[in-house]
Amino acid sequence: MRIISGLYKSRKIVAPKNLPVRPTTDMAKESLFNIINNLYYFDDISVLDLFAGTGNISYEFASRGTEQITCVDQDFGCIKFINKTAEAFGMPIQTIKSDVFKFLEKATIQANIIFADPPYNFELEQFSKIPEFVFKNNLLLEDGVLIVEHSKHTNLSSLENFAYSKSYGGNVFSFFEKG
User: Fold this and answer.
1) Residue 18: CB partners within 8 Å, gap ≥ 6?
2) Where do the structural domains in the chain lie, given as residue ranges?
3) What CATH number labels 28-36+43-176?
4) Which residue of 15, 49, 50, 114 is 20 to 30 Å from 102, comparing CA positions?
5) How far apart are CA 143 and CA 121, in angstroms?
């Protein structure tokens, strides 16, 4: 995995093989950040990265100048790896070790962008809980967006606050916005 743009452009990050992750591909990540780049100034936003895994998405935000980044993952190995990598690069990334759904139930943190990359084998009911909690608990700031990554075999367009989706190979990013 590599950082595509910004201060740490072209830096490679090698995650331990024993982490239970599926990092976003470079092609999909580059396309996603092209969309985000047209919507926001990276140094003016805050990001909440759910199911953070290796921290791949958070490193990209940090490299582009985002200074308020919070990663949530339930796996201790993932949190440890994110902390180690963020410290090595001097990135402003905070981590929270928690089950994402338990975190979302009680969360008060607000962000401009909430990115969620849950396991691709989630059932629609599990996927639906992500936007449900985000909007019920008012976790998006004004003009904020929730982006959920999932496989092309999952369709989230029936969920409340769904705005649109973009496909890149086997990856799909579904965007949710306040109604």
Assistant:
1) 77
2) 28-36+43-176
3) 3.40.50.150
4) 15
5) 30
The alpha-helical segments, DSSP class H, found in 38-92 are: 56-63, 76-89
Question: Rounded to two decimals, what is the model's pTM?
Answer: 0.95
Whole-angstrom CA distances from 112 to 22, 125, 143, 149 are: 24, 25, 7, 17
Q: H-type helices in the chain, by residue range?
A: 26-37, 56-63, 76-89, 100-106, 124-136
Residue 59, CA atoms < 13 Å, CB-side half-sphere = 31
Task: Inform me whether the pLDDT recorded for 19 exceeds 90.
Answer: no
The neighbour count for residue 90, using CB atoms within 10 Å, is: 9
Cβ contacts of 150 within 8 Å, gap of 6 or more = 118, 120, 122, 127, 156, 171, 172, 174
Q: Where residue 116 falls among pLDDT bands split at 50, 70, 90? A: very high
Query: How much of the chain, in percent, has pLDDT values that exceed 70?
Result: 100
Sign of CA dihedral 72, 76, 79, 83: positive
Mean per-residue pLDDT over the chain, rounded: 94
